[in-house]
Amino acid sequence: MPEKLQLEERLTNQLDDSVKTQYIYYAGVRRVLEKPPVLDTANIDRSKLFMASLLHSLGYFNPEIKDTFYIDTVRKQYRAHINFKVIPGKVLRLDSIGFDFRDSALQRLARRQQDRSLLKKNEPYTQQKVSDELDRLLTVFRNNGFYKLNKEDVFAEVDTVVAALIDPTLDPFEQINLLDSLRKKRENPTINVVFKQHPVKDSSRIKKYYIGRVTVYPDANYEEFDSTKHDTVNVKGYQFIYNSRKFKLPFVASNIYLKPGSLYVQRRYYRTINNFTSLGSWQNVDFELIERKDTNVPTLDGKLRLYPSLKQNLNLSLEASRNVSDILTNGQLFGIGVNGRLLNRNAYREAIQTVTSARFGIELGADFIQTLQASLAHTINFPKFITPIKIKTDSLINPRTVINLNASYTDRLQLFKSKSFNASWGYEWVKGRRREDQDQVGQKWRKTWQYIPFNYEYTDVQKTDSLIKLEDTIPSYKFAFNNGLIMSQILSVSTGIEKDNKLTLLRGRIEESGALFGLIKDLEYGSLARFVKVDGEFKHYINYKHSSWAFRFFAGYGYVYGKADTATGGRPSVIVPENNLPFFKAFYAGGPYSMRAWQIRHLGPGSSTVYENEKQNIERFGNMQLEFNTEFRFNLTTIAGIRVNSALFVDMGNIWSKEFDNTSHQQIPEASFHIDRLYRDLAIGAGSSLRFDFDFFLIRLDWAYKLKDPAHATVNDGWFNDLRVLNGQFQLGLGYPF
């Protein structure tokens, strides 16, 4: 069905402009028919021709397009209604794919890469696929030295008829057999495609080129070049012309992938440009290749001009925001925050980026000032892998080593004061060639990886009497608001693919803490948290001209296996198991980006009512989360240049944790996950949204209702409990929820 709707939309776009009608909409309601065109049957015929051309390009065999129209009267107007009936016909399928190049070297390359062809037997034929295959072949040739070869030199020959039928030398019996073949071809139409080479008019187009001199200007400027004001030096075979010591020349040379004397490879040419662009120290990169005329060997000389960016950038900002993070970590606050950020794009003259940021925030609450928070962070980003052993990174894009240092202080008045420190060492890289680098043109999954082998987090909490009393009411808080030590490693990957009007995004992450250091008993029974946390997310979008579908699925689980010593005040040691993830690592639901019918951290755990009868506004967290969200998004109107859109959405999910009764100290089964209780525990919310799109940001107003509330699962499984018009939940968000 989506393919049919997409084809209908593409056919509509082929209509002649004189056949289309334009309407002015106000608040999503059609009001005015704007300047309707005059009916002209010639425009109808032209539209049919355009639609037939589209169908042929998509590989439909013998399509039929019929039109009818009638005229009615609306007040004093005569209005014509045109209907097109389109019968696309059968889809042409590929029968055989061949290569027949005049040059033997090109023929060998094409045959050697034949298994990577985008055209496969019995798959539907389209002109776009043929064009993509031509691009793929040209990329293969240019990656093997054929610098001058272009699309004018190669073509695709297609055949849809049995050409031998017009051969006059054919005897009658063979003609009968061919006629039978033609009849079968019409029932199941197929097409043969052969890629060929035009006659050679310029012999230089089929010659392999080699790299000659490469001149590098590491600190180029846009002023007229004056050779008397520059220094010249040869580094690793490259000639450098420079006028300052902004960059270390060996570092620049190590990022150039076209070596003097080597065969020209287009992939290495683009990789050089993209590598310098991604480093961030240069605002523009120009790599000019010039054919040398004074040699018998086809040679290309290169001029690489690198235009530096400003080395440093200072940014100061004032913000007002709502806390959507956890209370112990450095997150946004609902109140006032002052941020400072200093960026150095070329530390140590090797395009190493350093970022130093500072923040001070005040959270407003019932007592005016509720929280004070200050933080200082420093990040060092090396444009290479720094490892004890050398790792080959030629197949990777943007390999980086990232060091993070972060210290923060939080004073939650009347509850606690916490000091936090975080240090990590990790690696980031992208796996999968860029579009211009690919030997195979087409859709590819491109993966972005991050591996942090060392992550250290420590939080020191000083509790007040108010928090201690709250812990007596909620036993799980005794494990949440404690001194926390995490010594973990993290691996994450994200990828995505876009095809036609569909976009799919995937993300996965795993973190483990304490597997090795937890063998030290003083740490194991102290503040070290031991757990394995896994989560993954799937997003899928289907986009149409005026609407779209959006789907999201999230799943996460944390396995906690640490132990703690409860000895205090001289009492003997009592070793007890830890049941839940630390608060700043736990899962939560609710808010503008999750289960929108609930306030943030006010859903769950499971179908338990452990927090429902408490007077305090208690936040909930869990070791496990499942969530599914879907939206139908559609356009409404435009007001003063601002696009106003809307959406209908449904959210399903919950969190689960280990909770214990404060009196009996027995585990509460309704709070833990059990597959046979999933339906009972599942929360469902639905609502509508109003969205104001300012291009550079989007303001979202969501209104949602609790259709199924697991906290009231004892009555009708929680369906439609206290459902009233004004009993919904309002959410204010920036950007899309997913």
From TrEMBL:
It is found in: Membrane. The keyword Signal applies. Residues 526-738 form the Bacterial surface antigen (D15) domain. InterPro entries: Bac_surfAg_D15, D15-like. This is BamA/TamA family outer membrane protein. Keywords: Cell outer membrane, Membrane, Signal, Transmembrane. Its main location: membrane. It holds the Pfam family Omp85.
